[in-house]
Design goal:
The complex is a heterodimer of chains A (524) and B (235). In chain A, β1 and β2 form a beta hairpin. Chain A has 20 helices and six strands. Chain A folds into two domains: 146 residues, no CATH class; 231 residues, no CATH class. Helix content of chain A is 70%, strand content 3%. In chain A, strands 1-2 form a two-stranded antiparallel ribbon. A two-stranded antiparallel ribbon of chain A has the order 3-4. Chain A has a two-stranded antiparallel sheet with strand order 5-6. Chain A is mainly alpha-helical and 524 residues long. Chain B has two domains: 154 residues, Rossmann fold; 64 residues, no CATH class. In chain B, α3 runs parallel beside α6. In chain B, a hairpin with a 2-residue loop joins β1 and β2. The relative contact order of chain B is 0.19. The chains are: A mainly alpha (524), B alpha/beta (235).
Chain lengths: 524, 235
Amino acid sequence: MKNIRSGITFGIIGGLLTFLFGGWSVTVIGCLMGVGLGMGMAGRFERKDPLKIALAVLPSALTAAVLLVGLSLYQNNFVQEAIGKRPAAENTVLYGNLIGFLGTVLFTTLLAALRGLPEKQEQTARMILLAALIVAFPFVDKLTALRWTAQIIFALIFVILGLGLNIVVGYAGLLDLGYAAFFAIGAYTTGILSSPQHGIFMNFWLVIWIAAAMAALWGFMLGAPTLPLRGDYLAIVTLGFGEIVPVLFRNLIDVTIKEPFTCWILPGLIRLFGAETTMACITFVEHEDLTAGEKGISPIGRPVIPFINYEFQSSNPIPWYFLIIMIILLSVFIIRRLRDSRLGRAWMAIREDELAAAQMGINPVTTKLAAFAMGATFSGFAGAFYAAYIAGIFPSVFDFSASIIILCVVILGGIGNINGVIVGGLVIMTADRLFLPALKDFLSSLLTHTVLPSISDPVVQRAVSDNANPILYRFLFFGLTLVIMMAVRPEGLIPNAQVRAELHSNETPPIEDETPKSKKAKKG
Amino acid sequence: MLELKDVHTYYGNIHALKGISLTVNDGEIVTLIGSNGAGKSTTLRTIQGLNKPRTGSVVLDGIELHKLPAHEVATLGVAQSPEGRMIFPRMTVMENLEMGAYARKDITSFKDDLEHVLTLFPRLRERITQKGGTLSGGEQQMLAMGRALMAKPKILLLDEPSMGLAPLLVELIFDIIKKLNEDGTTILLVEQNALMALSIAHRGYVLQTGEIVLADDAKKLMKNEEVQKTYLGVE
């Protein structure tokens, strides 16, 4: 019964999504939905015969598929007309829905059935399947002309940012409200080192490491004086840092750097003794426009694959997609190793109880500093990739709201859990980049063909059409998501086992202290 | 082995320790007794480096501990089972015990030591995969002691090991403390339960509002009229 209910929920959500995207989207949505539904239901079964599990989930898979295709066909036959768009071509409708239907059923049963295998095999099989889907996605996207890949890349950038922030917030338990500052430092390092702004055109493969190193260095510089602070105080300092950095980049448009000894100290001393001096002052930089202020730095050099000399193009997102997937894989690998290392254990001890950790011989300051610097490193990678992908950077991108969105990614996904953060990043950013714009288009065409013509007063008409733009309310949605998550599922979508244990400890009461029987006590 | 000389410790302007001098010799159990607020826990915190003495010195085998931060003191063989236990609530019992051995450079004997601790506290073995925060009070006390033992300390500081425990459990804990000492661990024991503490200790110090008012053999302290009246409840 629970399975059927999941099937109905997934089917309806998937079907409604086809209302927004139309055309071939039913195929992609069907397959992704199948994966989600299958993985979600797998956990409800015992490890036994895969075939039995497949048969057990088949009804809910079929329910989901029927609902999806039904809604998609309804969309094509009725909704499209209502919003004043032409229905899709006959072939698109036929094959799109057919593959969508099969994809839903196939992936749901397949992923659920994997649960029947031994644990090791299940994980390997699931990994292979997910890898195949990840590789296939951009090509399917291109064939079906959905143009989602370019937006998914943004989501993946935020996945890396989330992974980095997760080290600081999730592992070491330090609340960082200015994390976007390190993202900005990574992006601006790339901008300055590979653009016509200064006539420096460094290779992207080199710059991305420099950007990461710069971000780490600044993480270290911010951390060193502030990390003896605790809790709220640290959060306030990071908040300040997050505000300062974009302001700095906005205003570094007239930079003069002089060598202090020859320019001030020596002449000052000479004047002190009453003599006059016209000594040559060593100036490193004079009236240099470092960051181009509000205009931003653009264009920024793109990565070139050596040997075959292929330069990445903004018109073709597929190479970018695979590049960022590779960066994510590398990051996940490094972060996993870190988490399981001695340092990772020290982070967790600090998060639990700083004083007790110090008593165990952990140096709190260097441990926290390492978390800050490591977290910043990953945002440096993300910043470098972002700058190259957009081919331009502007200070407004890195303001406070960016820090908050990254924090939302971590909280929504599940603090302290790598998989959770990946899901959180994908959910939040696809909602922001794909869902909201599509919803906006859908609403505005719906209104133009239904309500608006019946409104006679042009002022009211204007007000209605202007305000029916969900993109205006994106921060309202972020806020609502956070409030609802905190109230309903504070441990996140895919929680860290420890966090879940703490938040729901009252549901499984601790074992009562039995007074040891006299026999037992004497034995001890 | 451990020597405190004229230690003055402050919390802000509050003069908590007013010139404490005490010694703990190798292989001894020394107990600090005194009422609430006498400065017992502060003395232990000062030895561990969690509070810095304003004047005076804390010396362990010739090393001046008062000049070192807490995490370095831990690496020198000082381990504490702190007041209020301070276990890591979201780590399992096993992970808590592993944290105890964090500062050790030689981890070759880790398995043997773990076995030793789990033999001392069989209850911990039953709970080995459970989260520290879900243990009962007595089990948490055992875990805090076990974690301190995993550091293979030269000197073990125990802060109120009997606090909040059922009487039978207190007896068990004190048996274990005695056994640990017989196996060669030097122990500095802070206790409100003066009778229990003096019955297993070699020597004792009586603390009153930050000052040591009495220092003697444990047996003699037990017979001291003043001590009997104030701390042992003998009329």
